[in-house]
Design brief:
Helix content is 55%, strand content 7%. The chain is mainly alpha-helical. Helix 4 packs across helix 7 and helix 10 crosses helix 11. It is globular and about 70 Å long. The chain starts with a strand and ends in a 5-residue tail after the last helix. 44% of the residues are buried. The protein binds adenosine-5'-triphosphate and magnesium ion (MG). Keywords: Aminoacyl-tRNA synthetase, ATP-binding, Cytoplasm, Ligase, Nucleotide-binding, Protein biosynthesis. InterPro entries: aa-tRNA-synth_I_CS, aa-tRNA-synth_Ic, Rossmann-like_a/b/a_fold, Trp-tRNA-ligase, Trp-tRNA-ligase_bac-type, Trp-tRNA_synthetase.
Length: 334
């Protein structure tokens, strides 16, 4: 069976962006049953920027709980944390010898994250797309559901696979494609419609956390930046209105309606009407998930057991692929 792989970093609490752009899609792939689904809490990626060890430890369990509470079933999908399967780091090294420095230099996310401080960030932050390629290709995964912001990295994965196959004259790693689906593939920051919502963003007011309570969600949407105009009569009217478009897309993502249907329903409505409706919808959808997350996190031993079991299953797939890679490369002993 063809495989789907994707991951989320335990670099903070999960956001509505992670939910709509990634986790909800992961559940769709799992439930479709057409592919073997492998989902990973990518803790090795998280430490590309500084993480307090105790905070990283807790966030890893929280992301795992977020997956399960959202509908990832550890019986139907493989769910594990990256550092428990050492093959990721091993193949990541080989891929960092395949990838070119020039390729990394083109990664817009690195430029965004490093900002003016590119000399001071970790080498890992720079090289991380090579590790990400190993996460995916270690399972010969062909489909990678991600948000819009990860498109470039998944395309780089394809380039790495092609160069490996070409250099070693093999047809070993498959072609991989990003799958970017749904009405909310790039949820924007609530305070600045030009930036994406991120779990590592500076201010808590710029994002909805999956664990926010009803009052906090209502307050954040109420304070979300918008222009003064009411909602337009047609989808076209959202052009050049990034904040308005974002809130409509979020509504669509949460409700299962298309953005067009949302506009039809709320044509001409002011923010005083739309924002409370959006908050109510978000609470309705996220409330049960955060309640379930809290229940799961109260029993960390159970989460750890699920992750350890998932890691066993992941290793079973990954190890033969890593062994064969070493053999192709010419290493003695495999
Ligand atoms: P960080 O700020 O630490 O990078 P993040 O919120 O960007 O955190 P990641 O762990 O980098 O989260 O990404 C996990 C998944 O969530 C990826 O598939 C990514 O594309 C998706 N994602 C992240 N932010 C958004 C967003 N604002 N809208 C849609 N999808 C998103
Ligand atoms: Mg990110």
């Amino acid at each position: 069976t063809p495989r789907v792989f994707s991951g989320i970093k335990p670099s903070g609490g999960l956001t509505l962006g992670n939910y709509l752009g990634a986790i909800k899609r992961f559940v769709d792939w799992q439930d479709a049953g057409t592919h073997e689904t492998i989902y990973c809490v990518v803790d090795l990626h998280a430490i590309t920027v500084w993480q307090e060890p105790a905070v990283l430890h807790a966030a890893t369990r929280e992301v795992a709980a977020g997956f399960i509470a959202s509908g990832i079933d550890p019986v139907k999908s493989i769910l594990f944390n990256q550092s428990q399967v050492s093959a990721h780091a091993e193949l990541g090294w080989i891929f960092s010898c395949v990838a070119r420095v020039g390729w990394m230099n083109r990664m817009t996310q690195f430029k965004d994250k490093a900002g003016a401080n590119a000399e001071k960030v970790s080498l890992g932050l720079y090289a991380y797309p090579a590790l990400m390629a190993s996460d995916i290709l270690l399972y010969h995964a062909t489909h990678v559901p991600v948000g819009e912001d990860q498109k470039q990295h998944v395309e780089l994965t394809r380039d790495i696979a092609q160069k490996f196959n070409h250099d070693y004259k093999v047809d070993f790693f498959p072609e991989t494609a990003p799958v970017i689906e749904g009405p909310a593939t790039r949820v924007m920051n609530l305070r600045d419609g030009t930036k994406k919502m991120s779990k590592s963003g500076e201010s808590d007011m710029e994002r909805i956390n999956m664990t926010d309570d009803a009052a906090t969600i209502a307050k954040k949407f109420k304070k979300a930046r918008t222009d003064p105009e009411p909602l337009p009569e047609t989808l076209d009217g959202l052009k050049d209105r990034p904040e308005a478009k974002n809130l409509v897309d979020i509504y669509a993502g949460l409700s299962g309606l298309s953005a067009e249907q949302v506009i039809t329903e709320y044509a001409g409505a002011g923010w005083g009407k739309f924002k409370p409706a959006l908050a109510e919808l978000a609470v309705e959808k996220l409330g049960p998930i955060s309640t379930e997350m809290a229940r799961l996190m109260a029993d960390p031993a159970e989460i750890d057991r699920i992750l350890a079991h998932g890691a066993d299953q992941a290793r079973e797939i990954a190890q033969p692929i890593l062994d064969e890679t070493y053999r192709i490369v010419g290493m003695v002993g495999r």
